[in-house]
Design goal:
The chain has one domain: MFS general substrate transporter like domains (Growth Hormone, Chain: A). It contains 15 helices and no strands. Helix 3 packs parallel to helix 5. It is globular, with a radius of gyration of 21 Å. The chain starts with 10 loop residues before the first helix and ends in an 8-residue tail after the last helix.
């Protein structure tokens, strides 16, 4: 067995040793927290957890503020569309730059943007000059930041741990994000309801936590790829990535399926504030509880799949999770009570986490290291689609009803998974 890359320098050896894997006769088990034995990855992991905590708390505050300022599903959807369009435009450049510039510097810059946007809205709420357009602007700023943050973070992860532990590291990173979805929404929901803290306090706390995340990133290595030969424009390098995917149908169908499922089904999170107020009338604390329950399901799923990161089992987990995601949304649509919808959201959170982490793992496990930034940027395009789909879905919900619209999301996810299972090439082990 090849020794895992400890400092990003041994990834070439790991790649060479796994270029022609033999299918395992039985599922291979990896220690749940194996990647955290790498001290540099451990620093990246915890800095990411801190950053995600700020983002998730702000996510709840933004949704509640948008609902308070507009009172419509379309108003909530427009905030996400303001996130999606800039991400669509910026993501191709984010993936290319992650493959050619210092990943640490990219992470530091995006952390500044996230913290500054949180501080701005916090000041607007505190001194009563916040307006709806400000939410749209901060959504756009954060979208651009994420367009550069996610590819850089994922590409750095693959360099630090190598192929052998890549899927485990991706799952652990997903778990850290989902764990903050438990803590962040719960604390934000409670904080919004406390008079002396409120929305402004949530935003100020998010800005402060972003500063901490920035400080934790400083010791990371620069992690810049050495370029060979004449430089190429970002646009041409992104086109190279598209050509690479076109020549790899095993990767291409994973990317396309992720795009459809994420674009159409993931917007359910945009409408949870309306589910809380319009359908069940449970207030900000109830909304926070719904977000937290979904995150608990996501964390438990992450713990489950963290040890199932090798061979054909990765493909099976991705398939069952995608189907479970669609089924869970249908259950949300028909839930007769608040307790029932909490159970449905638990399933949705678990399935969404399993599908997303396994899909990302399969794409990066199949792709060459030099394309990892661009592969991640292609996966991020689905989230730009998610943002742009939120507005028309919100308009649809205002016309036909929120329950019916969530049901449409679930059916679409199931149809996408059925198509994927019909046309995909035979799955092969990626590790």
């Amino acid at each position: 067995m090849v020794t895992t890359a400890r400092d990003g320098q041994d990834s070439t050896e790991s790649l060479a040793s796994t270029s022609s894997p033999d299918p395992p006769s039985r599922p291979v088990r990896t220690a749940t927290f194996a990647s955290l034995a790498n001290p540099t990855y451990r620093l990246l992991f915890f800095s990411g957890a801190v950053s995600f905590l700020a983002v998730q708390a702000q996510f709840v505050a933004r949704g509640w503020l948008a609902n308070d300022l507009t009172g419509t599903n379309a108003g909530l959807g427009a905030v996400y569309m303001a996130f999606g369009v800039p991400m669509l435009l910026a993501t191709p450049f984010g993936g290319v730059l992650a493959d050619r510039l210092s990943k640490r510097n990219i992470l530091l810059t995006t952390q500044v943007a996230l913290g500054a946007s949180a501080l701005w809205i916090g000041l607007g709420v505190q001194f009563d000059f916040v307006e709806y357009w400000m939410l749209l602007v901060t959504s756009a700023v954060q979208a651009i930041a994420f367009s550069f943050l996610a590819p850089a973070r994922m590409a750095m992860t693959s360099e630090l741990v190598g192929r052998e532990l890549l899927t485990n590291a991706i799952v652990l990173g997903q778990m850290s994000m989902n764990s903050t979805r438990v803590i962040g929404p719960a604390l934000a929901g409670v904080g919004i309801g406390v008079a002396w803290f409120g929305l402004a306090g949530v935003y100020f706390a998010s800005a402060a936590v972003s500063v901490l995340g920035f400080a934790m990133l400083l010791p990371l290595p620069s992690s810049r790829r050495e370029r060979v030969g004449p430089g190429r424009s970002p646009g041409r390098e992104f086109v190279d990535g598209l050509r690479y995917v076109r020549g790899r149908p095993d990767i291409g169908w994973l990317v396309v399926t992720s795009f459809v499922v994420v674009m159409v089904a993931f917007p359910y999170v945009a409408f949870l504030p309306r589910v809380a107020t319009e359908i069940f009338d449970v207030g900000p604390a109830g909304f926070g509880a719904m977000s937290a329950v979904g995150a608990v399901g996501a964390v438990l799923m992450s713990l489950y799949v963290a040890r199932r990161t090798n061979g054909l089992e990765t493909w099976r987990t991705q398939t069952f999770a995608g189907i479970g995601f669609g089924v869970g949304l249908l259950l949300v649509a028909v839930s007769p009570s608040y307790l029932a919808v909490l159970g449905a959201i638990f399933l949705v959170g678990a399935a969404a986490s399993g599908f997303q982490s396994m899909n990302n793992s399969l794409v990066l496990g199949l792709a060459e290291f030099e394309f990892h930034g661009r592969m991640q940027s292609l996966m991020m395009l689905s989230f730009s689609g998610f943002g742009m789909a939120a507005l028309p879905l919100g308009l649809l919900a205002d016309v036909i009803g929120l329950r019916q619209t969530i049901g449409v999301m679930g059916v679409t996810a199931l149809l996408a998974m059925a198509t994927y299972l019909t046309v995909r090439p035979p799955p092969t082990p990626t590790i």
